[in-house]
Design goal:
binds NADPH dihydro-nicotinamide-adenine-dinucleotide phosphate; 7 strands; SDR family oxidoreductase
Length: about 250
């Protein structure tokens, strides 16, 4: 019997990296997993990799109508959500002097506004015992060169979870933050290509006491912990899946 037997999970940004690895893990533990993302072909590929117990729904977390469609489908097919993993996120390197209006707006639209309305629109489907996981980052508690806007967006996530744990008091719904450190995903690879891949990976490694860059599956294990009843006592908390990076 899996840890998530008969649970219904929704993972935004479930077609790549940490989201995809978590979707595989949740499905293997018995959950039916809804994965979302904007890129249809990447969603289809992810869906095929996961195999059974998966529904892929194309959508953008910044588009209200896409979120409505997602939760309409889940409501019709399952009537509830046990695990909501608000994982979709983006970031790009921009030193202070080069921050653009467009990059600021997009980063906050996806990482903060997308998270707020994903959770708000899912709320009617979340019942006693449900687990909400928000995706933070070690950058949310540290200064990070050329990554201030992304880092600020992830700092906001910590406070959302703390405040929502209070808003949700008495409902039996819990909300926690999963904060990865450097994790070898297509997302990080994209940022690293722009910065000079070897230089950036070396710098990240130097800030990681565990001595290796995490794999998506490392973070998915922690997501499973937060999704399952193993973490039933936790709400308003932040868990770092970061090889110790937050300490450096
Ligand atoms: P990936 O780029 O591999 O995955 C990001 C996912 O988010 C993709 O599925 C992407 O799908 C989706 N996404 C992006 N924008 C949107 C949008 N507007 N609407 C819907 N989906 C969207 O990155 P990671 O797996 O690395 O990142 C996952 C999360 O982990 C992010 O929140 C990231 O900030 C966080 N994180 C990652 C770290 C790392 O080192 N990798 C470290 C700390 C935190 P599509 O493009 O098809 O829309």
């Amino acid at each position: 019997m899996g840890k998530l037997e008969n649970k219904v999970a929704v993972i935004t940004g479930g077609n790549s990296g940490i989201g995809l690895s978590s979707a595989k893990r949740f499905a293997a533990e018995g959950a039916h997993v809804y994965i979302t993302g904007r890129r249809k072909e990447v969603l289809d590929k992810a869906s095929a990799e996961i195999g059974a117990n998966v529904t892929a729904i194309q959508g953008d977390v910044t588009a209200s109508e896409d979120l409505d469609h997602l939760f309409d489908v889940v409501r019709t097919q399952h009537g509830r959500i046990d695990i909501l993993f608000a994982n979709a996120g983006i970031g790009q390197l921009e030193p202070l002097g080069h921050i653009t209006d467009a990059a600021f707006d997009l980063t906050f639209a996806v990482n903060v506004k997308g998270t707020v309305f994903t959770v708000q629109k899912a709320l009617p489907l979340l019942k006693d015992g449900a687990s909400i996981i928000l995706t933070g980052s070690t950058t949310g508690i540290k200064g990070t060169p050329a990554f201030s806007i992304y880092s600020a967006s992830k700092a906001a996530i910590r406070n959302l979870a703390r405040s929502w744990a209070l808003d949700l008091q008495g409902t039996g719904i819990r909300v926690n933050v999963l904060s990865p450190g450097a994790t070898d995903t297509p997302g990080l690879q994209g940022v690293a290509e722009a910065a000079g891949r070897t230089t950036m990976y070396d710098a990240l490694l130097a800030q990681t006491p565990a001595g290796r860059i995490a794999e998506p599956a490392d973070v998915a294990s922690v997501a499973l912990f937060l999704a399952s009843d193993d973490s039933a006592v936790m709400t308003g908390s932040e868990v770092f899946a970061d090889g110790g990076m937050a300490q450096v």
